[in-house]
Structure prediction request, 286 residues.
Amino acid sequence: MSEIELPRRARPLVWGVVNVTPDSFSDGGEHATTEAALAHARRLLEQGADVLDVGGESTRPGAAAVEAGVEAGRVVPVVRALRAGGVAAPISVDTRKASVADAALAAGATVVNDVSAGADPAMFETAARHGAGMVLMHMRGDPATMQSFARYEDVVEEVLAQLLARAKAAEGGGVPASRLWIDPGLGFGKTAAHNEALLASLERFVATGRRVLVGASRKSFLGAAAGKGPKERLAGSLACAARAFEAGVDAVRVHDVAETVELLDVLARVSPRAGESAGGRIGAER
Prediction:
């Protein structure tokens, strides 16, 4: 596969979330069918999404694992149909299973977004064989158990060290550094205080020279204490996107694409950071 082209923007790229699941925390399964997911994906592109992130397994806290065949049956038809319909935008498959990644990449996805950072022993080889980009996210345990592991002496230092170690492992497995992204995994095995500490220290992640993706959108630490449901957390989600912009993060993964694009485009015009760019090629150094 040739280099994975991404747009160049004077702000973080926006990855739009397409959950093809019946039990998503953020949308309650509104896009669980192929037809609904396709309509949603096209709507996100119209709203300005730079990348589509298609997932077929809920990874909310406490979620049970989904069998690989079921997960692939949800995401692969969506990826294939998007490509058949002429969608040229990069498509990421949100999975921690190498077999699902393999099928989705064969269908036209170009990036693997792995919340387990390569826990499946075959994942790095799979991404390397397809020439895919790869997002390595920090998580302890798995979605069903991760909140029981939310204990750190120094959350920023420990998360950063683990991500850099996994990036080295991915390189050793054949994925070039130029195709890798790191994600601090907000909400995955972290308390609200941990999430806030990571957001306050995003510059530490950017300073590594690795591409950085942040996913804070609609997560419980943004509004659960005030009794706000996922769709009522837009203000907090936008605040986190603005913080990511300020820190120089390369991409944000969001549910509310139109509002996030508008926010980031305005910041790109008025901020002292204006003129810097995110994106480019996943096959070129940052």
The chain has one domain: 11-271. The CA atoms of residues 182 and 242 lie 19 Å apart. The chain has nine helices and ten strands.
